[in-house]
Amino acid sequence: MHPLAERFRRTLIELGEDGAVQETPDRAHTAAEAAAALGVPVETIVKSLVFTLTAPGAEPTPLLVLASGSNRVDVSRLGDVLGGRVGKADAATVKEATGYSIGGVPPLGHPRPLRTLVDEALLRHELLWAAAGTATAVFPITPDRLVELTGGEVVGVA
Question: Would the pLDDT of 83 be above 80?
C-alpha cells in the first residue's frame, strides 16, 4: 500500500473505523474514474474539494466541501450562504491545509480541523466511497459516519 494511503488507514483506525482502505488498479482522480474502478454509481463518490472562504475584511481560510460525485459545487451560492467569497484553492493551499495532493484528498485526517460542508445529496445513499490519500486509494463510509467524523455542516452545495 502507498505510504500516504497507509498513513490514512492508520488515521481511520485511530478514529474507531476498521481501516478498510483499498487501492484500485486504475487511477481515480475524478469521481467518474473512481466510480468506474469500483463499479458503483458516481453519486456515491465523495469529492473532497478545497476552496477558500474570504469573509469581508478577513484573510482567506480553507474550506472543505464534500460533494457527491455527480454534483458541481455552486461557489456563488455557497458564498451567499457563508457570507463571503468562495474560490477554488490552489494546489499549494490544498496540500498545506490537508496534507494531501489534489486527487487524493480524504475527507478527514488533516493536520488541523477544517470547516467542512457535506453535500446533502450524499445522505441519500447507504454507502459512500471517498479518497484515502492517493489517486488510487479509497475507503467506504456511511453518510452518518462521514458527517460525524468530519464535524461537517450538511448543506446543498449544487
Answer: yes
